[in-house]
Every structure is written in structure tokens, then in C-alpha cells.
Design goal:
The protein is α+β, with helices and mostly antiparallel strands and 296 residues long. The protein has helices at residues 12-39, 43-63, 121-125, 145-151, 155-158, 167-173, 239-254, and strands at residues 71-77, 88-89, 91-101, 105-114, 117-118, 135-144, 179-187, 192-201, 204-217, 221-229, 267-277, 280-289. The protein has 7 helices and 12 strands. A 6-stranded antiparallel β-sheet has the order 1-3-4-6-12-11, covered by helices on one side. The protein has a 4-stranded antiparallel β-sheet with strand order 7-8-9-10. The longest helix has 28 residues, at 12-39.
């Protein structure tokens, strides 16, 4: 819309003033229409625009937390939609599959749903999610047997299983560092697992085997309890030393799985329960989110 002002003054200065007033009014009106469209005075369009924006920004942010992802779906709930512009969201829900954390740790499925979220809506316009206050999310994770076995090849895990010089192992290896390799895990019923591996030092290579139960401890650790030596694949002449190595490996495993070591910046993970189900290991718990990290 263009407004024209007329007056009876015909001097050059009057023409200049008239033109300036027209320009200023046009800019003001254009800005008003832009803001009206941006905020969405049309309620339906405003809702669609705001939800779509948050879905896209949240989906992009979550994808950056993972090295790779096969699929990530995000659903934002906000009713009435006007709360969104004030920075209040009823909940975020995310479901994903084939999510790889820190290059080596794959999850078959992961989902979480937050409580109400208070965020800085203007940050979404910049492609970021900034929380005004911490929130909490219910989380579920599914790992396959293949995922678990692949994780034993991760550098972060190998560091804790190679060139070990703890006293329990030193007594067996005459002080030489011991490494555990070729680790294979099999999921059993009733939250039990079976592990086979090789203990190596110098020119020695001893097969070992164990079965045990998995428990959640302090909501952040996974404990390997009721450890039993499994001798069926161990030569009779090596079973005594293999059993000693099995006991040592059990102690090492019990100190390995601590979720605080995997925390993302600003996100604290906690477990409520775990369950073995067929060829999958299921976890349920929650995440305390202080801030949304930029990357994993």
C-alpha cells in the first residue's frame, strides 16, 4: 500500500518533506504487515509455521548429536499454539533408528519424550534450541547383540581391555601386561549374558568364558553379577588359569560401564531398568537436560 500526502506548498523543501513522509509511512506499513505475517495473526498459518520451524530445528539439532543416523523423527506438542511464541512447549518427542554415538556405539532404536519445555523461541529463528530452564525426558534404548559386540571394537572400550597391569592379572602373567581380545557376547534369557574371549600376554593366549547377570546400579552403572566360569571351550590343561582370568575380567567389566563417561555436554543419562529380549537388550530411563548440546 502506498499513501500520498498533498499540500498547497510548492517549494522544493515541501516536496522533499512530502516524499520523506511517504517513504517513512510505506516502510512502517510494510514492516507491520511483515511482522503480522511472521508472527501469524492467521492462527492456523501461525501454528503450522511455528510447529514446522521447531520440528526442523530440533530434528537438525538432534541429528548433529549422532555420528550417523538412519532416521530421526521429531514431534512438537503445543496447545494452544500461542504458547510457542512465549517460549513454552508441552513436549518434544523423538524417535530414531540406526543412531551411532561417538563413531562406534550404535543403537538400533532410541526414543525420548520431554516434560514441558521452556525455551528461547528467538533462538529457533537462528537454528538453535536454547533452554530457559532444565527439563527432563523419558528415554528408551534398544541395542542388538550385534551392536553390543561391535562396541567391544571401539577405541574407548579397547583402552580398558588392552595392556592391563592390575595386580590380579600380574600374578597370573608374571607381571606382563595382559590384553583381552576376540570378545563375543551372547544375550540369554532373564537378563543374563554369556561372554567368550582370549587373554593374551607375551606368547600366551588363553581362552576364557563366563556367564553372568546384568543389573542396574545407582541408575548409572551396569553391573555384571553372579559371574560363573564356563569351561566348555577351554582345554582341560588351561582351565585353572582360565578361571582366574575370568574372575579378573569380571572385575574389569564391572568398572567399565558407567553412563557418566558417555554423558553429552549438558545431558545426564540415568537408567531405571534393563531387559534382555531375544537378540536385543532394552533400557529404559530418563535424561536430565540442562542445555541442548551442539554435537555429541
Amino acid at each position: 500500500m502506498t499513501l500520498y500526502f498533498t499540500n498547497r506548498c510548492h517549494t522544493p523543501n515541501c516536496h522533499i518533506l512530502n516524499n520523506l513522509l511517504q517513504i517513512e509511512m510505506n516502510i512502517s506499513l510494510s514492516s507491520s504487515f511483515m511482522i503480522a505475517g511472521f508472527v501469524g495473526f492467521n492462527q492456523s498459518q501461525g501454528k503450522d509455521w511455528g510447529i514446522s520451524l521447531l520440528n526442523k530445528v530440533t530434528s537438525s539439532t538432534i541429528r548433529h548429536l549422532f555420528t550417523r543416523s538412519e532416521s530421526v523423527e521429531v514431534e512438537v506438542s503445543c496447545n494452544p499454539s500461542s504458547k510457542m511464541l512465549q517460549g513454552t512447549i508441552d513436549s518434544f518427542k523423538m524417535t530414531g533408528s540406526g543412531l551411532v554415538i561417538r563413531k562406534d556405539f550404535r543403537t538400533e532404536e532410541m526414543s525420548f519424550e520431554t516434560d514441558a519445555v521452556s525455551l528461547d523461541f528467538s533462538s529457533a529463528l537462528k537454528g538453535k534450541i536454547n533452554l530457559k530452564q532444565p527439563t527432563q525426558a523419558i528415554a528408551k534404548v534398544k541395542l542388538t547383540e550385534a551392536d553390543l559386540n561391535r562396541s567391544f571394537e571401539a577405541e574407548l572400550v579397547r583402552k580398558q581391555l588392552e595392556n592391563l597391569s592390575i595386580p590380579e592379572l600380574g600374578k597370573i602373567s608374571q607381571g606382563k601386561p595382559v590384553s583381552f581380545s576376540n570378545i563375543q557376547l551372547k544375550l540369554l534369557l532373564d537378563n543374563r549374558i554369556k561372554i567368550s574371549a582370549k587373554a593374551q600376554w607375551g606368547n600366551r593366549s588363553i581362552p576364557i568364558g563366563l556367564s553372568c547377570s546384568l543389573f542396574v546400579a545407582k541408575r548409572r552403572k551396569i553391573k555384571f553379577e553372579n559371574i560363573q566360569f564356563e569351561p566348555e571351550n577351554v582345554p582341560t590343561s588351561e582351565r585353572q588359569i582360565s578361571q582366574q582370568l575370568t574372575e579378573a575380567l569380571g572385575k574389569i567389566l564391572n568398572e567399565m560401564v558407567d553412563l557418566d563417561r558417555f554423558d553429552l555436554n549438558g545431558v545426564k543419562l540415568r537408567l531405571n531398568r534393563l531387559e534382555t529380549k531375544g537378540k536385543s537388550l532394552l533400557f529404559s530411563g530418563y535424561a536430565q537436560i540442562q542445555r541442548v548440546p551442539n554435537q555429541g
